[in-house]
Automatic annotation (TrEMBL):
<protein>
    <recommendedName>
        <fullName>Amine oxidase domain-containing protein</fullName>
    </recommendedName>
</protein>
Length: 228
């Protein structure tokens, strides 16, 4: 793992646009998707046993709502892909089990209006990540894996109550960027303030901390003005 520094982003592989597509299943996953890698043991030796290393891989995929909408669109078009969903999931069961992934990766859920099973996407994503490492000069990474833990959008939702399993909150489309995100002070409930990734200025640790600072300033301002 000497080729990987503390943090690094992989992706593209010659298909820049395709690498940014949020996959809804194995068939829509780019061959070289964008993903982020962090090696915490490089700055914190306690993050791995002596002589070992630990990796955190963040692979963006479609959230629960996006997958349900994609499945509904496929059904309306009468696509044969919808009928293959069960076969893909069954095949993925064997792939994930054989790959040593944690059972927590194989989660399915009754989301709003239907079930979402990420097992086939997890299996395909795992292979894409390992392939990217191999192409970057680390072909034997797979055989060095001792343990794995996978958290998919279903678990993000069930463990932390995140809507649709979207770990970073609202998306950053142009209509939800910066000042177009929900404001700090609620427009309908006096004394209610919003803070975090889904409000202004946006997601990510630095921006979420700025959001907290803005919220405190707004609360103090309103208290001083007798608003709350």
């Amino acid at each position: 793992m000497s080729a990987v520094c503390s943090s690094r982003r992989f992706g593209s592989g010659g298909d820049f646009e395709g690498s940014w597509v949020r996959a809804t299943g194995p068939d829509t996953l780019a061959r070289s998707p964008n993903f982020y890698v962090h090696c915490p043991a490089r700055t914190d030796p306690t993050a791995a046993p002596p002589g070992s290393d630990s990796l955190m891989v963040l692979l963006p995929v479609a959230n629960i709502q996006q997958i349900l909408r994609s499945q509904e669109a496929e059904r309306r078009r009468g696509s044969p892909l919808a009928g293959l969903a069960g076969s893909l999931s069954a095949a993925a069961d064997a792939a994930v089990s054989g790959g040593g992934s944690s059972p927590s990766a194989s989660s399915s859920s009754g989301g709003s209006g239907g079930e979402v099973d990420y097992r086939s996407l997890v299996a395909a994503g795992r292979e894409a990540v390992l392939r990217s490492f191999a192409e970057a000069g680390m072909p034997d990474l797979k055989r060095h894996i001792v343990d794995e833990l996978v958290i998919d959008p279903v678990e993000w939702r069930e463990r932390y109550g995140l809507a649709h399993g979207a770990a970073f909150g609202l998306s950053h489309g142009l209509n939800q960027l910066s000042v177009f995100r929900p404001g700090i002070s609620d427009k309908q409930v006096r004394g209610l303030y919003h803070v975090g990734a889904s409000t202004r200025p946006g997601n990510g640790v630095p921006l979420a901390m700025i959001s907290a600072d803005l919220a405190v300033a707004r609360v103090m301002q309103d208290v001083g003005a007798g608003v709350v």
